[in-house]
TrEMBL record:
It comes from Papaver nudicaule (Iceland poppy). The active site is at 84 (for gatase activity), 189 (for gatase activity), 191 (for gatase activity), 232, 390. Pathway: Amino-acid biosynthesis; L-histidine biosynthesis; L-histidine from 5-phospho-alpha-D-ribose 1-diphosphate: step 5/9. Substrate binds at residues 319, 455. This is Imidazole glycerol phosphate synthase hisHF.
C-alpha cells in the first residue's frame, strides 16, 4: 500500500535499534532512515527510538539541526512515536548528568528513581500500565505487562496532565506514555514487550485518526518477577556453534570421545523459548574468554538471526575485554560490546574482566574509568551492563578465617562446617580469585553495573534448587537487580527463590533444554503462589 507502508526512523546509532527495525519489518513495513532534518519534515510516520544518555541524544539532535525539525513535526501534529529516551527528550530538561535542556514540548523535568526507598535502580523488567486516557495505541493493554529498562523517569504534574495517557508505579507513579493528537511516546519498549508490544506498534503503524475506542483500564500492578532462559553456547569439536550445558561447569560427556554436550541450535532454541513465554533470553559464549568473540562471527550471526523473531530482551556475554589479535590489531572491550549491540543484544554481560576490574578498584580505591565495565556503562548506560558472577562455595568452620564476607549456611559442609564464603572465579570457573561474591557485587555496582547475574558453580546443573544463602546475601547487599541462577530443577525452586530472597529474576538452562519443565509451568506455578509474572505468551 505504497507510501503508507513506509516508516521513517530516526536512529542516531547509540545502541540496539535492530529490534525496532525487526519489529517494523515483521509488521510488514519498510524503513526509511533519517539523514537530514528535511527527512523528518517529509515523514508520513516517524519513530524515534532514543537510546543512550539524554545529553548525548540532545547533542546529536542539536548538531544536526534535527531538534528544530522534530519540534516542528510534533507541533504540526504529525504521526510520531517516541520510545524510551524518545519520550524523555520531549520534556523541558533532565537531571541525568547535571541539568540538560530537552526539546521543551512537554512541561516537566526527567529525574532519577530514588533507590533509597528500597526500589532497585535501574527499573528493569515487566511492569503494568495504568491507563489514564483514551489512547489509540494502548487500547486493550491496560493492566498488562510491558518491558521497561531505565533509571530516569518523568513525573505526572498538573502542568503535563493533558499529555499523559498512562502511568506506571515503581516507588512513585511515573509517566509511562503520552499522547496528544497523533503524537505518542512511551517510556517502555514495545519492541521488547512480546506480543503486547507488537500490537502497540501495529496500532501506531496503522493508526488513521485520533478517535479511540474505550481503553481497558486494568488493575494497578507491580513489577513482575522475570523468568529467563539461558543458553550457554560454544563451538563443539566439529566447529559448530551449539547450545551446551554443564554439570558444575563441566560440559563434556565423559564418554570415550569426551565430546561437548550438544543440546540444540542456539537460534531455534531462543525462538522456542520466546514463544514459550520466556521474559528474557541470555546467550553466554562460554569459551570466549580464550577465543576472541569478534573472531567468533557465528555468535554475531546468532544474535542477528535471533533478534529477527525474538521480541523480548536479549543478553549476550563472553569475551568482553580488550584484545590484540594475531595480526597485532588491538580491539577495545567497547568495540566488542558495540558489535554485540549492533547485532541485536540489549544487554551485554561481563564475567572475568569484571572480576579483575573489581579487584583493582578494591586494591586502589580509584575508579580509573578504563575498565570494560566502566567504559561500556558510560557509553551505553548501566542498564545495558550485566556482571555475571561465577562463585564457588568455600566452607569454613569459623567466619573469621577469611577476610571475605562469610555467611552461616543452611546445609552444613562435608565436615560439618557451618559457614561459607563464595569465592569468585574467572575463565569459566577454572581459576579462583582472591575476592568474594559479596565484595565483587558491591564493587561492580559502584563501577557502573546495572544488574547482576548470580551463578553458583556448586549448584549449576544439579537441579536441587538455587543457592538461597548466596542469593539472599547478594540481593540484600546491592540496590541493582539480581538474577538468581544455577540449580533450578522444578517450578517450586522458582517460588522459593522469590519468597526467600530479593532476587528480581530467576534464570534456568538445563530444565528448559531437556524439556523437563516448560516455561509456562514455572509461570503458572508462580502465579498460583501469588507471585506476579508476565502472563502472556508470544
Ligand atoms: O568471563 O566475560 O568471558 O564470560 C564468560 C561467561 O560464560 C560467564 O558469564 C560465565 O558464567 C559463563 N561460563 C563460562 N564457562 C561456563 C561453563 O558452564 N563451563 N557458563 C559458563 C555459565 C552458568 C549459567 C547456567 C546456570 C543455570 N553457566 O549460565 O546457565 O548455572 O544452569 P542450570 O539451570 O542448568 O542449573 P567472560
Amino acid at each position: 500500500n505504497g507510501r503508507d507502508s513506509v516508516v521513517t526512523l530516526l536512529d542516531y546509532g547509540a545502541g540496539n535499534v535492530r529490534s525496532i527495525r525487526n519489529a517494523i519489518r515483521v509488521l510488514g513495513h519498510e524503513i526509511k532512515d533519517v539523514q537530514t532534518p528535511e527527512d523528518i519534515l517529509n515523514a508520513d510516520r516517524l519513530i524515534f527510538p532514543g537510546v543512550g544518555a539524554f545529553a548525548a541524544g540532545m547533542d546529536f539532535l542539536n548538531q544536526k539541526g534535527m531538534a528544530e525539525a522534530l519540534c516542528k513535526y510534533i507541533e504540526n501534529d504529525r504521526p510520531f512515536l517516541g520510545i524510551c529516551l524518545g519520550l524523555q527528550l520531549l520534556f523541558d530538561s533532565s537531571e541525568e548528568k547535571g541539568t540538560v535542556k530537552g526539546l521543551g514540548l512537554i512541561p516537566g523535568v526527567v529525574g532519577r528513581f530514588d533507590s533509597s526507598r528500597g526500589y532497585r535502580v535501574p527499573h528493569i523488567g515487566w511492569n503494568a500500565l495504568q491507563i489514564k486516557k483514551d489512547s489509540e495505541i494502548l487500547d486493550d493493554v491496560g493492566g498488562q505487562h510491558v518491558y521497561f529498562v531505565h533509571s530516569y523517569r518523568a513525573i505526572p504534574s498538573n502542568a503535563n496532565k493533558e499529555w499523559i495517557s498512562s502511568t506506571c508505579n515503581y516507588g512513585d507513579d511515573f509517566i509511562a506514555s503520552i499522547k496528544r493528537g497523533n503524537v505518542h511516546a512511551v517510556q517502555f519498549h514495545p519492541e521488547k514487550s512480546g506480543d503486547v508490544g507488537l500490537s502497540i506498534l501495529k496500532r501506531f503503524l496503522h493508526s488513521k485518526s485520533s478517535i479511540a475506542k474505550r481503553p481497558t483500564r486494568g488493575n494497578a500492578s507491580k513489577l513482575a518477577k522475570r523468568v529467563i532462559a539461558c543458553l550457554d553456547v560454544r563451538t563443539n569439536d566439529k566447529g559448530d556453534l551449539v547450545v551446551t550445558k554443564g554439570d558444575q561447569y563441566d560440559v563434556r560427556e565423559h564418554t570415550k570421545e569426551n565430546e561437548v554436550r550438544n543440546l540444540g541450535k542456539p537460534v531455534e532454541l531462543a525462538r522456542q523459548y520466546y514463544q514459550d513465554g520466556a521474559d528474557e533470553v541470555s546467550f553466554l559464549n562460554i569459551t570466549a574468554f580464550r577465543d576472541f568473540p569478534l573472531g567468533d562471527l557465528p555468535m554475531l550471526k546468532v544474535l542477528r538471526l535471533t533478534s529477527e523473531h525474538v521480541f523480548v530482551p536479549l543478553t549476550v556475554g563472553g569475551g568482553i575485554r580488550d584484545f590484540t589479535d594475531a595480526n597485532g590489531r588491538h580491539y577495545t572491550s567497547l568495540e566488542v560490546a558495540s558489535e554485540y549491540f549492533r547485532s541485536g543484544a540489549d544487554k551485554i554481560s561481563i564475567g572475568s574482566d569484571a572480576v579483575y576490574a573489581a579487584e583493582e578498584y578494591l586494591r586502589t580505591g580509584v575508579k580509573t574509568g578504563k575498565s570494560s565495565l566502566e567504559q561500556i556503562s558510560r557509553v551505553y548506560g548501566n542498564q545495558a551492563v550485566v556482571v555475571s558472577i561465577d562463585p564457588r562455595r568455600v566452607y569454613l568452620k569459623d567466619p573469621k578465617e577469611v577476610e571475605f564476607k562469610a555467611v552461616k549456611i543452611t546445609n552444613p559442609g562435608p565436615d560439618g562446617e557451618e559457614y561459607a564464603w563464595y569465592q569468585c572465579t574467572v575463565s569459566g570457573g577454572r581459576e579462583g580469585r582472591p575476592i568474594g561474591a559479596f565484595e565483587l557485587a558491591k564493587a561492580v555496582e559502584e563501577l557502573g553495573a546495572g544488574e547482576i547475574l548470580l551463578n553458583c558453580i556448586d549448584c549449576d546443573g544439579q537441579g536441587k534448587g538455587f543457592d538461597i544463602d548466596l542469593i539472599k546475601l547478594i540481593s540484600d547487599a546491592v540496590s541493582i537487580p539480581v538474577i538468581a541462577s544455577s540449580g533450578a530443577g522444578k517450578p517450586e525452586h522458582f517460588s522459593e527463590v522469590f519468597e526467600k530472597t530479593n532476587a528480581s529474576a530467576a534464570l534456568a538452562a538445563g530444565i528448559f533444554h531437556r524439556k523437563e519443565v516448560p516455561i509456562q509451568a514455572v509461570k503458572k506455578h508462580l502465579s498460583k503462589e501469588g507471585i506476579e509474572v508476565r502472563a502472556n505468551v508470544a
